[in-house]
Amino acid sequence: QVQLVESGGGLVQPGGSLRLSCAASGFTFNRFAMRWFRQAPGQERTLVAAVGSLSSDISYGDSARGRFIIFRDNVMNTVYLQMNNLITEDTAVYYCNAIYGATNYWGQGTQVTVSS
Question: Taking 90 as the threshold, does the pLDDT of residue 56 lie above it?
Fold first, then answer.
């Protein structure tokens, strides 16, 4: 059974940091690229960051570049998103995604709220 379980979300003040985790099981993790998306109320789901199967290809959406870091641990089957200098516009549900060719898995999401 495929599972992607996100954790680490919560309420944080502007300027603060959070680290999201996504624990994967039920598939060959080190074959899949891993991505973080986010979706704010009334808005489309957008790509935040992506990392290749062996961490060789990393990319960021405009909103994340310079503030967020994506990294993965292929031994622990986990992908992380370190989020620094958070702003209110970062408030959203953050989703973990695994992709390999036409195969696509999603987590259930974790809420991040940036507010004073």
Answer: no
Which amino acid does the sequence have at 27? Answer: F
On the CB side of 93, how many CA atoms lie within 13 Å of its CA? 13
Burial of 47 (C-beta count, 10 Å sphere; 0-12/13-18/19+): middle
Sequence-distant (≥ 6) Cβ neighbours of residue 66 within 8 angstroms? none
Q: How many CB atoms lie within 10 A of CB 88?
A: 11
Q: How far apart are CA 59 and CA 98, in angstroms?
A: 15
pLDDT in tens, 11-32: 999 999 999 999 999 999 999 9
* pLDDT range class, residue 96, cuts 50, 70, 90: very high
- Cα-based distances in Å from 57 to 17, 20, 76, 91, 93: 24, 20, 19, 26, 24
